[in-house]
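Regression test attached.
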Amino acid sequence: MDETTSLTDVKSEKSDTHTERKAADAPTHKAVKKKSTITKLVLIGVALVLGLILTFCPMRFGFTLYYPFCSSESISLGLDLKGGVYAVYQATNDDTDNFDSKMEGTRSSLESLLVSKGYPEATVVREGSDRIRVEVPDVEDTSDILGIIGEPAEISFVLDKTDETVLTGEDVVNAQAYYSANDGGYVVSLELTQDGQDKFYEATSNHINETMSIIVTIGGESTTISSPTINSAISGNAVISGNFTAESSEKLANQIMSGTFDVALELKESETISPTLGKNALKYGLIAGIIGFILVIAFMCIIYRMLGLASSLSLILFVIIYLFFLAALPWVQLTLPGIAGILLSIGMAVDANIIIFERIKDEYRNGKSIMASYHAGFKKALFAILDSNVTTVIACVLLMILGTGSISGFALTLLVGVLVSLFSALIISRALVGYFINLNSYNEKLYGLKRGKQFEDVRADSTAQNVLEEMQREAEKKQQAKAEKQNEKAREKEAIRAKKKGGETA
Amino acid sequence: MKKISNLLDREFHIVEKRKIIFTIPLAIIFIAAVLMIIFNFTIGSPLNLGTDFTGGYSIDVKLGSKLTSDNYDSYCEQIENALSTVTAESGETYSIRIDNMQLQGSDDSSAIHVKYFAVKGASESEMIDTINPAVKSALENRILMIIPAVEIVDNVIKITYNDVLSEPTFADQKQAFIDLVDALNKDHSAGITFDGWATDAITLGADNGKQIIVNCKTVNATEEVTNALVSGMKIDDVYSGSVTQGDLVGATVSKELLFNAVLAVSLALIFMLCYIGLRFQLSSGIACIIALFHDVIVMISFMAICRIEINSTFIAALITILGYSINNSIILFDRVRENMRSAYASKMSPEQVANKSIKETLLRSINTTVTTLIMISMVAILGVSDIKIFAFPIIIGLIAGTFSSICIAPSFWALFQRVGKKNKERFDTKPKDKKSLGKKETVRAETKV
């Protein structure tokens, strides 16, 4: 719930922007403006501190623990950062019909199998056309996972007298091993499909007092586990009993489950990835990021003074919102390339601010007042920022759709970052820079601004006469062009109408 | 800062210096190419590709609680030594190349995970049947044994261990020594005869019971004898752990994955080119792509020159720079677009437009590069080894990207403006031909009306 509060804070700022822009256009009532500006800045400061607390500080409310956005509990980490086990399986019978849909079916059944065995964080993805990659975080021993998937076993129930196969692996939904006091040992229980249950009931009711063999085929080798006599018609699920131990029953259940996959899988490779490396990588990465970020902020403040200060606040807000989205979006899984995406996003957010400030400096150098430079700077920087970000978004979307694994992970973090940085640069920075300029719009040194040679004697809060005239001329031109366009449209419409009328009368 | 702003008051002539601009990257690429050819013949591979690309094998040296962060490095060194001595039956060393070593698990499950490359020229079955077992036994013999130091002075053999020998261990080692001497004397190489009764001559030394001292009547103090004693008196350290042969580590970046990645990136490039073509000019788009290829090639060149291992993280670094480079070029071409629109465009040559745009974006380029470099250098300084490997190509890419967006992209753009009749008309004479001017010029025409 705490996340939503920080979001609403941002929204309220957004609405502030509009009112502020109106206020900025009217150069009178300086004192009043200053007061309201200060209150707004204080509000943003409070939001900032709240956001920072929500992002970095774990808290305890009664019995519930709150995990901040920037913690491994909130942002799900990939295998390379968290450590764990991965295994790659190759399909051996890739010549069958509908191979693609069968692979997809196998992938999803593998996924549900791992979830049912207590690995809800496991990811199962297809790699290439005939491989399946299983990644399970937080596991240290490969054999834990490999045992579950195991060598597939094909199970069949065969009537001995007629040699008729009653059930096969296809009829099995789930296989489970447990201790049964009735049977005096470990058994494997098979949950059957409705179709399988019907077949089983029919066969057992028609063949009472005959024996039925339960045959397990592993790697082409068949073994008869038991051949019980059918005492009565059996409805519901089948139970296999034999001389099982806890382990052998568990193994058989796993193997039967693997046998139900649509394609036969063969283990190609598996490896354990060290979690300790991951933890250190993340810890030092985070420290490096924070120190780097502080240095960047210091750099911005030195070069751009108050503008830099405003951008620092907006960059901190950017990071908070960004981390919030990384934590909140369910399909973000952070990997090393993902961290690269984050770094690039922060870089682009800083870049957007620099582009804007250089524009503002340019405008001021060429004779505009600080306030006018601020508006013109944002306006002129808009297209540069939009174009560069749209290109990045295009690349991200394509890489997300076409790329595999870490590449699509990189693209996702970058996409989120670019969108948030757009918001931060064009809305948060704009508002904040506006407030900061309102504070003291006649002191150029405070903002790191400098007049060009021709305009050295023009006051900071006024615009040079010739520039003002030019601006007016430009505005007039624009208005004229607009009016012209509208006229043209109207004429066109009239022409069409006239044509229609003409057509009707004819 | 003052110097830079002074610089900005001057005219820029960057684009005209094509010779210098194109020579710098070409020289880097040339050096890399030459080095790659040399490496190909001396070491065997032009680039230092990691197991992510080539595949390899893994083996776990499980040491349990014996392994601490203090002795981790020395164990790594021992493993390295052990692997360098793996020899075939024919006597030639396999020269096994280690890709990397990682600390895995904690406390009782601590292990060192070693990844190594397949031996060059060895088939997969050869690797699995002969070389991998040889690696395993080499590690077992070297890492999981207590190896003594042997010293022979004045017919006294001193065998020193790191730890105190317990009573039963001493008895075992005593017997082992007698057996060893018997075997050695059969070869007539050692010529060890004991002083007095054989068993009495072997005593536990005074050095806190870490030393076995043998008083001999005669002993050949040759290197051969010493070596035989060292290997014969090793103690099988059953408690120190085990070596488990891991699996085949597949090339995670298989050809198919690499192909997919290249396909995805190429399609992304084509779409970006279309967008830039729509919003700017096609020639701007092409110049962007050229700048981007320049950055990528320079990055690969540096990886080749410094022979840094290329792993899957390098691909991430490449894509990062791809994004950064396009971003940089677009900011420049945004200025070019603006300067073209301005009424003066027709009076300016393409070089002048490009130079003006470079001048106007120079401060932004420098500041952005500095801030990004600050971030990434922090990562390079403080990060763990994997991240460092990742940060280096990005730093190179950043510098290359800044250079290409200031010099390469506008140079090519200006060159393209010289190609074709229509473009020549556009700059040198007053533009009247609407078709050749594209979208922007028509916009201008509209505003003039």
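Expected vs. actual: identical. Confidence is low (pLDDT under 50) at residues 429-449 of chain B.
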